[in-house]
Amino acid sequence: MEKKKVLGISFGRKMSNCDVMVKEALMECEREGCDVAFIRADDLEINNCTGCIACVIGMMSGRGRGYCVKHDDFDILDEAIMQSDAVILACPTYETSVTGRFKTICDRIGPSHDITFRKARYDEGKAAGVPEEQLPDARAFKKRSAALISVGGAMTEEWIALTLPMMYEFTFPMAIDVVDTVEYYGAMACENVAGNPEMMKRMTRVGKNIVESINANDEDERIKYRGDEEGTCPICHTRLIQFSHDKKTASCLVCGNLGTFDIVDGKFTMHYTQEELDRSRLRWGGKLEHSTEIKTQAQPAGTIKNLKELKQPYADFNPGVWPVDKNACGNI
Ligand SMILES: Cc1cc2nc3c(=O)[nH]c(=O)nc-3n(C[C@H](O)[C@H](O)[C@H](O)COP(=O)(O)O)c2cc1C
Question: What is the DSSP letter of 152?
Answer without folding.
Answer: -
